[in-house]
Amino acid sequence: MSVAKDPDTLYIAPKQATTFTYLALGDSYTIGASVTQAESFPYQLQTFLKARDITIADPKIIAVTGWTTDDLQNAIKQAKLTQKYDFVTLLIGVNNQYRGYPLDSYKKEFSELLQTAIAFANGNKSKVFVISIPDWGATPFGKNAAKSPQTIGAEIDAFNAANKEITLAAGVSYTDITPGSRNAKTDPALIAADGLHPSGKMYAEWVNALLPKVTEVLK
User: Fold this and answer.
1) Quick check: 10 pLDDT over 90?
2) pLDDT digits (tens, 9 = 90+) for 71-85
3) SS3 state at 26
4) Beta strands 128-131 and 87-90, pairing class
5) Per-residue pLDDT tens for 44-81?
6) pLDDT, tens digit (0-9, with 9 covering 90-100), for 148-185
7) In what order do the strands lie in the sheet with 22-26?
8) How many CB atoms lie under 10 A from the CB of residue 192?
9) How far is CA 123 from the centre of its chain?
10) If we measure between CA atoms, which residue out of 149, 45, 154, 139 comes closest to residue 91?
C-alpha cells in the first residue's frame, strides 16, 4: 500500500560543502625545500583547516627556491592566472637579502606583489596573509656563511620592518614568525636535513600562527 506524501512538505536539498581555493606566493619557504610536500606550510595549512571542517583544494603554489621579489613578479606574469582565490599567502624577500639587493627595490617590488595578492583575492584584503621572513642566520648554514649570524639577523629585521610597514599600511594581516625561527639556534629539530630550510616542525608552528586568522575569514 502506498502512502501519500504531504503536499505541504517542502524538499530541502542537503547543504553542499564549500571547497575553498588557496594561492601561495613565495620562494623556497613556500614550496618547502628539503621537506615533503605534506610538510610544507601550505599543505599543512590545508590539513589543519580540514581538521576544522574547512575543505581546501590543493594549494596553487607559485614559488621556486632562490626567487627574489622580481623573480616572483615575472613568474606571476608568465603564469597568466585569471582565477580569483578564497585566500592568498605571501612570503618573499630572503633572497633579496641574501644577494645584497637594495632595500628600496625590495620595498617597491614587495608593495607591488602585495597589491597583486589582493587582486588574486578578488580585492578582499582580509583574505591575504603576509608572513615575515625567517632568520636563516640561526641555522647551521647561517653560522658558516660569509656574513655573521648577527649581521644576517639585522638585515632580515630591516627587510621585515619594511614588509610589515607596507602590509599593515595596506590593511592586510601580518604574521611574524621570525622570533620563532631563531629558536633553531637551540632546537635542531626546527631545521631540515639540508641545515638551512625549516623542518616540518617549524612549518607547523607557522601554521598554528596562521590558522585562527585564516579560519576566521573562511568560516
Assistant:
1) no
2) 999 999 999 999 999
3) strand
4) parallel
5) 999 999 999 999 999 999 999 999 999 999 999 999 99
6) 999 999 999 999 999 999 999 999 999 999 999 999 99
7) 60-63, 22-26, 87-90, 128-131, 173-175
8) 19
9) 18
10) 45
C-alpha grid cell for residue 71? 623573480
What is the residue whose three cell numbers read 606574469?
Answer: 77
Dihedral sign, CA of 28, 60, 36, 40? positive
What residue has cell string 597589491?
115
CB 173, CB 11: distance < 8 Å: no
Cell numbers for 180: 620563532
Helix (H, G, I), strand (E, B) or coil at 62: strand
- Cα end-to-end span (Å), the chain: 46
Distance, CA of 72 to CA of 109 (rounded, Å): 10
Q: State the pTM of this model.
A: 0.92
E-strand ranges in 138-214 read 173-175
